[in-house]
Write a structure and sequence with these properties.
257 residues; alpha/beta; 2-enoyl-CoA Hydratase, Chain A, domain 1; Lyase 2-enoyl-coa Hydratase, Chain  A, domain 2; 2 domains; six-stranded mixed sheet; four-stranded mixed sheet; 11 helices; 16% strand; globular
Length: 257
């Protein structure tokens, strides 16, 4: 497909979606959000893709939402145009989604990165929720995901007092998986994604679902969700192949079925 505000490419079994509004520091407008989620869903349905990366450029992952679109909006417009609800589409992506973040990840940019499954950050990455400075609060999950990932105190400081985390701080607090040099940060994210894409596809999907359940349920319900994902894998060809390959000390040949 041809998009206007995002670029897509594939590297082996890794699909890459690049935010492409450099003149606006990749601020999310309605068109880019729509194209972003459309591109993610296309990769999610592609059997040749095992993991997906979303990135921006070296200077900015995404510097928030396009304020010009929202400045005069009414509550009714925000609700009927589903400007926040569109973000829920990320929860429907079954394959692992990795944010490759360099430069600014602010507001909606930070929220989108947090909604991904993993984050590879360049040394220049900065994460923040500055909505309080324009009279609103995060509306696409920032208050909830930050509190779950960082704890109440630091989440409060970021949301209420506009604290920005550097890449090193984000790594220290467990917000990102890796911090890598700015030059080659996307290549590092691709290498990371390639490792994931080389694993048993159905098991990866079930693993993602199970880990996510830990953030949305009690321990008892989370354990039940894990078992619901664990047992069916023993009906797959990949489970038989994986265990036999282990016994035979060879590399498994995954079929995704």
């Amino acid at each position: 497909m041809t998009y206007r505000t995002v670029l897509t490419e594939t590297r082996g079994r890794v699909g890459i979606v690049q935010l492409n509004r450099p003149q606006a520091m990749n601020a999310f407008n309605t068109a880019m959000l729509t194209e972003l989620f459309d591109a993610l869903e296309v990769f999610d349905k592609d059997e040749n893709i095992g993991a997906i990366i979303v990135t921006g450029n070296e200077k900015a992952f995404a510097a928030g939402a396009d304020i010009k679109e929202m400045a005069q909006a009414s509550p009714f417009q925000m609700i009927t145009e589903a400007r926040v609800e569109i973000w829920d589409r990320i929860r429907g992506i079954k394959k692992p989604v990795i944010a490759a973040v360099s430069g600014w990840a602010l507001g909606g940019g930070c929220e989108f990165a947090l909604s991904c499954d993993m984050i590879i950050a360049s040394e220049s990455a900065k994460f923040g929720q500055p909505e309080i400075t324009i009279g609103v609060i995060p509306g696409a999950g920032g208050t909830q995901r930050l509190a779950r990932l960082l704890g109440k105190q630091l989440a409060m400081e970021m949301v209420i007092n506009n604290r920005t985390l550097t890449a090193a701080e984000a790594l220290h607090f467990g917000l990102v998986n890796r911090v890598v040099p700015v030059e080659g940060y996307l290549d590092a994210a691709v290498a990371f994604a390639e490792e994931i894409a080389a694993r048993a596809p159905l098991a990866v999907r079930m693993a993602k679902d199970s880990v996510n359940a830990a953030f949305e349920t009690s321990l008892t319900e989370g354990l039940k969700a894990e078992k619901r994902n664990f047992y069916p894998l023993f009906s797959t060809e990949d489970q038989k192949e994986g265990m036999q390959a282990f016994i035979e000390k060879r590399k498994a040949d995954w079929k995704g079925r």
